[in-house]
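Margin note: ligand = beta-D-galactopyranose.
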Amino acid sequence: MNTIRHKTKLAAAITLALATFSAQAAEVEVLHWWTSGGEAKSVAELKKLMQAKGDTWKDFAVSGGGGENAMTVLKSRVVAGDPPTAAQIKGPSIQEWGAEGVLADLSSTAKAGNWDTLLPPVVSKVMKYKGNYVAVPVNVHRVNWMWVNPAVFNKAGAKVPTTWAEFPDAADKLQKAGFIAVAHGGQPWQDFTIFESVVLGVGGPEFYQKAMVDLDQTALKSATMTKAFDTFRTVRKYVDKDFSGRDWNLATQMVIQGKAGMQFMGDWAKGEFTAAGKKPGKDYLCVDVPGTQGDFTFNIDSFVMFKQSSSDAKKGQEDLANAIMSPSFQETFNLNKGSIPARLDVKMDKFDDCAKKSNADFVASSKTGSLVPSIAHQMAVPAATTGAIQDVVTQFFNSNMSSKQAVEKLASAAKTQ
Ligand code: GAL
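Resulting structure:
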């Protein structure tokens, strides 16, 4: 009798335990814009980890490089009172969302996980709102890269340019040999990505900081900025006629396939080379944008969590935050994504030479003041100002606007709040 009762009790306990377990299997809906080959492979790692924790991944992918479309969709979901569990948000926008009072406080997870010791200050600063963690970093991307097809350069007898003064000669040679010199996708954020690298190369990091981060009117209206627009105009001469609206990863494919010589793009482009089985140093080269040797424009991808009331949802958020910060995720994700881990303690042995160079330059530039936030990738100034400046850059690229006019417009756009 006693044994039977004991067995019944045991069965009841097991049933209860199972019910509790399944109640804790949270569904996490995650908004992101990682839809290219390399990006999709990277985000699949996060999905795998969450599934291994017993959570259900609800993919909320909004295509469109740079994330503008994703941000529009996100705003409408939040306004409708139906935010996703987590969303890819970065830079000063984290502060803007924090001020809306809709973000979950991740302080206790961060404390338990020692995030303050694991993350470099340049990263942790971006992740906090009023001193508390509200975002989790997945990586550090470097934007000032030039992706080169060495076989194309060889065939054209062109030398990879290290300064903007050398650039036209190389680009002319590529064109004469029948190649597209610069693979580019004409979308505003891609124009802006080239522009910020040109500003850095022409003016140097101190000038970049003054103009693109501090929005100093004197720097914005300076002769150096006029020269940056002149150089940007030169780059425009070397894109093919079908560039308008092209996605960035299709432009990368042009370099991969040997149709074009180079592309100016952040190291998510490396994710495409990797996904295509290409090897750095052999099939392609990662080179500093002319004039930016050792400088580093950083772009940190991160996720915020939206406040939730149910304990299941909160558990899902905690799982997601812990998964993102785990060393194995930071390694695998970044091997696919082209970036470097946000955590300082992840070993770089498995990474290629481009990532190793990025890592070394990241550390070195943080000591010399040549580590600057990418404005094109929303790391430098609030979203409205970024948008206004981007509009000027794109208008210039797609019209005959003079550099002098552009400088005036840029300076007034910088006053947008
Ligand atoms: C950037 C983002 C990268 C990459 C790129 C193209 O803004 O930080 O992770 O996804 O857009 O989509």
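The pocket of beta-D-galactopyranose is lined by residues 33-34, 39, 65-67, 141, 248, 268, 299, 301, 377 (CB under 6 Å).
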